[in-house]
Amino acid sequence: MKQDEAKQDMLDEVLASDNLARAWKRVKSNKGAPGIDGVTIEDWPALARAHWPALREQIKQGRYMPQAVRRVEIPKPDGGKRLLGIPTVTDRVVQQAIAQVLTPIFDPTFSDSSFGFRPGRNAHQAIRQVQAFVGDGCRIAVDIDLAKFIDTVNHDVLMNLLGRTIADKRLLALIGRYLRAGVLVGEHIEPSDVGTPQGGPLSPLLANILLDQLDRELQRRGHRFARYADDLVILVKSQRAAERAMRNITRYLEHTLRLKVNPAKSKAAPMSDCAFLGFTIKGKKIRWTDKALANFKHRVKELTGRSWGVSMDYRLEKLGQCVRGWTAYFGISQYYRPVPELDDWIRRRLRMCYWKQWRWVRTKIKHLLALGVSLKSAIQHGVSSHGYWHMARTPVTQQAMSNAWLKAQGLVSVKELWCKAQGYST
Predict the structure, then answer these.
(1) What residue spans of 107-238 are helical by DSSP H?
(2) d(CA 47, CA 78)
């Protein structure tokens, strides 16, 4: 088959049985909630067996209309809300099938400084590239914040870029219908005249296709930069150069790509005063930001809240998941000092939880005795009127609920995980 003919038949590649089977496997593994039709991951195979042949024909003939995404609000640690769109399972499978065909075509053309949602690339590589640029003397950062990027992507600009590579007009039309599918807010469907399909498997690739134009412009100007999705930082050697780059790139983003820059959150400043993917560079070392640490501690407080009426086993399980996940990402921070302090703080909060769970004087004394505390000390502490937080730090409770005992109950150590991430022995 000639290359031009292959491009004309791209929709057939999308709808090929093996490609759809891989797409379904990926969507199934990602799990996720149902869309506006209420069909769950578990329900979808039966629905597909009954309706897929007709649905496939509708897609091929250009008669298929994707359903609107269901909007949900996810609480943010700072008290705000993050808007998330949930497409139907059917639309997630079709979008994933499209992404699987387009990614091998577009991804090899993307910049080496683009790290987000690409095979074999991740956020750690992006922050290490920034660290290398700082080490080379580029210590001033241009931190550009795109305001509600996913919601403001211009359809005409994006479709024009897709049309330069995709010759199959049926596939282009299908992507266009996904862009315009709308959003269910409450009981009403709002049109989506701008933006990409939130929460869908195709959205990250479409975002990279658009922002690849920004990467090319930055490379044309000779800038050193790292981009992860819409999170971008440019590294230069002087404040004057940073301010000039800020003006020029803002103009390019707003006039050429028709995106909106948030001036309140964008700045030109030393990299040590900027955040990128939850990290900053102090000197030449990677550190997590104060905000990232505050968010982690907020989550730990939720999981170790005295009033959370769950078993300690369940609490420790959820806490372990939180600590492992956070350390797996932020463990590349090269700042050691707060690490032991975090372990001490988490252990104290857990001792407080145990003390609250034991509740009654007799129960407290019983547990303290079982953990090797003398009868006199057990009684003194059991009848104490001091609060839970105070009691969690007394020598007796620390002796009873020792670090080794807490570890045996299932407590995960931040220090041990951090040392493992750094390649150190504990």
Answers:
(1) 123-135, 149-152, 155-163, 169-179, 203-220
(2) 40
